[in-house]
Amino acid sequence: MAGKKQIQPTKVQLQWLRRGLSQPGGKLPLFDENGRQIGEKTVRSCIEHGWAAPWFDNPVKPDWLICKLTDAGRRAANAAPSD
Q1: For 40-69, how does the pLDDT look when each residue is reduced to its tens digit (9 = 90+)?
Q2: Distance of alpha carbon 81 from alpha carbon 14, whole angstroms
Q3: H or E element that contains 5
Q4: Theoretical Cys-Cys bridge with 67: which of 5, 7, 51, 52, CB 3.0 to 4.6 Å?
Q5: What predicted TM-score, i.e. pTM, was given to this entire model?
């Protein structure tokens, strides 16, 4: 009987998730270290995998997803080897 394959975050996803580890409530950043907005594909993929969850709506920028780490996201960020 084969077990369910564990999906691991990509390098980009992992970098984003790890930035939430030190933030109050696990808040994930909207922008990377260079000031560029985190890609929507990265955000939505992390939500689909259960690593991130929408936190609240941004009334100023309703198209931006403000997210926080989930317990699964914390485990994934802590379990993956560091580069």
Answers
A1: 999 999 999 999 999 887 788 777 789 999
A2: 10
A3: none
A4: 52
A5: 0.85
Query: For the chain, what is the domain count?
Result: 1
In a domain, 39, yes or no: yes
Q: Which amino acid is at 61?
A: K
| Inside any domain, residue 3 | no
DSSP secondary structure string for all residues of 17-69? HHHTTTSGGGBPPSB-TTSPBPPHHHHHHHHHTTSEEEEE--SS-TTS-EEEE
Evaluate whether 50 touches 70 at the Cβ level (below 8 Å): yes
> In terms of Cα–Cα distance, which of 77, 78, 79, 75 is closest to 12?
77
How does pLDDT run across 10-51, given as a tens digit for each residue? 999 999 999 999 999 999 999 999 999 999 999 999 999 999
CATH assignment of the domain containing 42: 1.10.10
